[in-house]
Fold these 3 entries.
Entry 1:
Amino acid sequence: MSNFNIYKASAGSGKTYTLVKEYIKKALINDAKISHKPLLAITFTNKAASEMKSRIISSLFYFSNKYNSDSASQKLYKDLKLELGYSDKVLQDKSKKILLDIIHYYGLFSVSTIDKFVHKVIKGFSYELDLPSSFTVEMDQDKIIQEGVSAVIDEAGIDSELTNGLLKYSSYKTTENKKWDIEEDLFQVSKELFKDQKFVFINKVSDVTAIKSVQRILFSEINFFEKEIESVANKIKKLTQGISSSSFYYKDLPNYLKKINKKPYSQIEISDQFNKRLYHSIQKNKWYKNDATSEDKKSIDNISDNLHIILNDLIQFLKRSYSAYRFYKQCYHSFFLVSVLSKIDEKIEYIKKENNIIHISEFNQIILRFLKESPVPFIYEKIDYPWFGMINNYGEDISFQLRAKDAGIDSYVDTSIIVGHEKSVVLDLF
């Protein structure tokens, strides 16, 4: 089996230089008629592909003519001459031939992005993949998602379950002082549909029974927290009944009572749970102002011990439970978004089918599914030259035998078969 050379390098360390050198080196040592034909260079971006093509051609031009060039080309010339052991004339002549071949057979000059290569592979067996021959590749994921989300929202008022879910989630957002419009939320969560684990993800979130079961558990935890807060608020309200709110330091306790007595409890301070002045009152067990009425002072003194116990317990409870409560509440309502994903996915698939669209992110999954059901060599039959073409001008059959040998696969001959043509070729296969 052929060896793989893996180069690990950071930005600016000379990756392009190394790749260009390896490309030209392989072309130089290939004595075939079109030496660059079997070579494929793959990059991540179009810019990188363009740069690599430019570097290869400019370097070959310099090698062919020994004209003045940049220092990179000069260094490349010296490195290749040393590694290959070529004289100046041999290197010059071979470089000139490769350059002319590239010009005459530019379509075989294969330096492209991964996306472009995979696209070509899929185009080669679109029939077997049950894809329309005229399919187009869509790069804009956001455009497809937006169309799918809009199609689902348009069903509001028709699908009762969907409509109720939309209304509940919008109401939740309103109570949380957020925008009631949920289109952006659906758009963001729908990006999961274009990730590699989409199919596993969709299978899990399409189980409505499982989702509702989790929501019931979350609702139970949410309800427990809210009942506890309501209980505390009622106790404080009962204790302070008849006492003027202005008698308390800066009205801290009455104001805080308003916060914890009003859903969605978003104003409870999660950082230290209590404002500093109220916390000071609890620690010092000092609640009222100096100018409070004597009657209020007496009433507050009578309840101060109970206030101290109740609020200390509240502090501990919030430290244990408030963050979890906020998390559970967010999850509870976000599960609606997740449950709608399967509907959005159906709409997106319909839109793509109607418009003969395939998103670039689907290519790998499409090929993987196909190869699971087909012999791997089948893919080679569907890909054009130069990547799986002939070796050293041998025919496809001999080239196949050479690759089989390289892969460690034994070859056998059935001598009983009569063929219409014969040609003697000596191969060291056994």
Entry 2:
Amino acid sequence: MFFNTFLGIKLRKFVTQIIIIFGFILITIYVIKIKNPISKNNKTSSEVIFEQESFNETLLKKRKKQSAPILKVKIKYGDTLEKILRNNNFKNDEIFDAIKETKKVFNPKNIVNGQTIIIKYQLTNKKKEKKIESISLPLEFNKSVLLERIEEKFLAKIVSEKTIKRVIKKKGFITDSLYLSALRSGVDVKTITETIRIFSFSVDFQRDIWPKDTFEILYEEELLKYNKSKKDPGNILYANLVLKSGVSLKLYRFENEKKEIEYFDETGKSAQKLLMKTPIDGARISSGYGKRRHPILGYNVAHRGVDFAAPKGTPIYAAGNGIIEEKGRKGAYGKYIRIRHANNYKTAYAHLSKFAKTSGRVKQGQTIGYVGSTGRSTGPHLHYEIIRNGKRINPQKLKLPSGKKLKGSELKLFLEKKNKIDRRLDNLDVY
């Protein structure tokens, strides 16, 4: 009896000790799990995500470090692609290979002043020497030449960006000149210049335009799809000048079946004539045709032209289609241009500050030079002459035949297009 009791007590103590030891082990394991809840091979989803994010951040940092540096170079007068690359420490063999490949799609000599070349590169082991990764060379509004390194060779191609088109309506009062007033209204220079050319056959911008006259222009505009800040003006569909006299000069763009483009009034009568009334916008007549007291010589002389006073640098337009037969310095005329037109007409432009990049044949309304004060001159102005059959005539009294009048099927087609433009004008807000 005693022995059995003794064994029972011993057994109970042993079991108790086992339980205590096992409990201690469990507590130890639990504490370890609290301090380090997950092993390398058994992670929770939250920790996996955290570690993935950390990895991505590291990768991005790594890529940032590895991404090619960018060099932007604005093209200046006299620059060539070869010159730009040499001036920026690119390897000679790189330059040769890059230009050779570029020539397959574009002549690098035709790069335009003011454009920006974008060059991605990598630095070589040698100090300051660069290795070309890619070159982006702008061509037109939405086109560029892209030269890329593929392994150890270059590949050149012309790439185009997607564009969207829209129609813009601009309207405003003329306070000083059509050019400046339209510019303040947000119309681009190209569109303004073309608008002036359109009206120049029927409007004398020096005498016919007055403050509070109004203008209205409807024109197309093209934008890059992914960079809408970059714009390119398109065709002028409609233009209107409402003058102080109450006269409204509405002109509509019309392209015939021969793809010829002209501007016509509401009745289908062409606005175009042989010569423009005035080859400059926003100028005042400072000296008319005929005898006058010469401001420098001090005695009366015959003035065989008209002087237009205007700020230095004001654009001067070709009065008509023709061929430049003289261009350069000409004594008292200073910088001088003479253009030969049809029907034995010639026009001459003197005292220019500089010439536009033109030679040979020019179009009516094309910029040929800029107002200056070269030669025998007291201030910036344009001296303008019209010569007919070898004799100088008064530009202000020149009467030219009216333009052609549309008839038949052409007139019908024009009126259809005119009505479409009118509906657009009614439904479009001023931009």
Entry 3:
Amino acid sequence: MSGAGRLKLFRTGIFPSTPRQEKGRHMKVLVINAGSSSCKYQLLEMDTQSVLCSGLAERIGQTSGRLTHKIAPDTDKESKLVREAAFPTHVEAMELVIALLTDPEVGVIKDKGEIFAIGHRVLHGGESITDPVLVDSHVKDIIKDCFLLGPLHNPANLMGIEVAEKLFPGVPNVAVFDTEFGMGMPPEAYMYALPYELYEELKIRRYGFHGTSHKYIARKTAEYLGKPLNELRSITMHLGNGSSMSCVRDGKCFDTSMGLTPLEGLIMGTRCGSIDPAIVPFVMEKKSLSPAEADTLMNKKSGLLGLCGYTDMRDVHAQVEKGDKRAALALQMLVRSIKKTLGSYIFLLDGKVDALVFTAGIGENDDIVRAAVCDGLESFGIKLDLKENGTRKPGARTISLPDGKIPVLIIPTNEELQIALATLEVLGK
């Protein structure tokens, strides 16, 4: 059955309904991001787009687990609960989450029937799924088919869906794919110059990741500028422990820095980013590494960690202040990788750029990195307001000078909200 057909059945009530579908009641969406040994979640009230609670279950499958649960996070009324318990599987972790959600004293809902729908972050949909979709057996099969492309994330993401199906019977589950935004790229952007049969047989191509964030930021950038999304030409810098950039043309992804996997592109906390591919077999031979060990070297032991021993930029900056040359080198290399990508995207947009946008942990909070990225780009019309850049403020804002040709913005990302909005869109709400 097609996605449209499944959605029609859902809307007509053939699929099991929940109390949350009653007219006039506020819709609440639970967003789940399941990892192999962890599970992040948020419960959002969609009428106000406010977060009722959020949390993180850690050390699932180990002898002792930990659940950190926040009520009204990032508000003046925020309160935090920490529970230590054994979570043999994700089921036990989510059962504790449900208990906290519905607790008579600290709960934010009376019962789990108040949850209208569940949105899931899924890493990889390959070329088979290019939009958020209502989960059924066919969708789960596609997620399984993409285990090869996302071996660390897709199995855990599927597990999160199956746990939700067990614990929330009758509640619709919607999968939102991290690769979705990148599927808008033209072939000349997503193809690699490898034998074409590798694309045909193995689907080796550039997919792009952080797509949920990049899509959200593109929409918010258009809103901030008062510009139709389908006319937007922008460059988004999603900078965190994992970092990527996207080139947005006519509101769609025109190019992106991550590739077949999240390893390609910028230097990151533990990932090397783009390197000469010949380095891989060379190191494997000289160090007698297996493919798995080589993958671990590049994904978990490289980047800032490999260069200077630190992954948190606050630690890197502190070491630079102390005269640590390797930390200074790591910072310089990070900034250089961002500027190289930024320059290429300006050219891809024919120099017609509506905005440069910083987002995510480093992008939103690290004024040193932002200043270094923009330094020396005045001839391109990029003029940073150093005072505004050095000031911490909430929300979206401009950090460039009025006489600059290209506005430089900070727009906080909100992947959970984007997933929740996509969930309601799929369900026709």
